[in-house]
Design goal:
Strand content: 15-25%
Mean pLDDT: 87
Number of helices: 8
Number of strands: 10
Largest sheet: 4 strands, antiparallel
Shape: elongated
Strand order of the largest sheet: 1-7-2-5
Low-confidence stretches: none
Amino acid sequence: MDITLLKNQSFWPHLSPEERQTVEQHAIASHFSAGQPVKLGSSNCIGPLFVVRGILRVYLLSEDGREATIYRVRAGEACVLSASCVLSAITFDVQIDAETDCDLLIIPTATFAALMEHNLYVENYVYRSSTERLSDLIQAVERMFFLTLRQRVAAFLIDESASSGTDRLTLTQEQLAKAIGSAREAVSRILKQLSQTGSITVSRGGIVIQDKSLLYAELEHSGL
């Protein structure tokens, strides 16, 4: 099993030889198909995830079944909220799905909890990473409360273009609706309106941003 991605993490140089050996012995390489929930057995708290290939979607799920995406985790990145049961400062649950086919490295919860307990650098890594992601959570909540649906769609398209490095976004309207916590029919209506302004074009293969300045103009009076 190739654990190069783990060795690239900031805490790795500060592990003792024994701790490195423990990680190498217990790390799990797992594959998840697109759309599959990321869990081991019945547990969502499976330990930190390191994405070798693919994209993970981390989101909140309300009691009535509505979803709101917090952030995505791409190849080379890590997700520590999947180990929330060992983080005393985290008191909420997140859901994680494989948005595309994914290959992951997982440090099991028990192994990682022991590392956190005995290695300050691992603990700092976890809480720093958690804090960075909590800012994404706050931003997601702010958008839900303070932006109109049209503005939320525009903001999502801008962010997705920046994250993927392209103005040609290969995602379905259903995926977009889930990402912003809305209904597909409502999102479809907004996309049609935005296409009429010339800011985007919509096809069966996805969405192409034609004029990003028009999308930014949608957000001018949002206050965010």
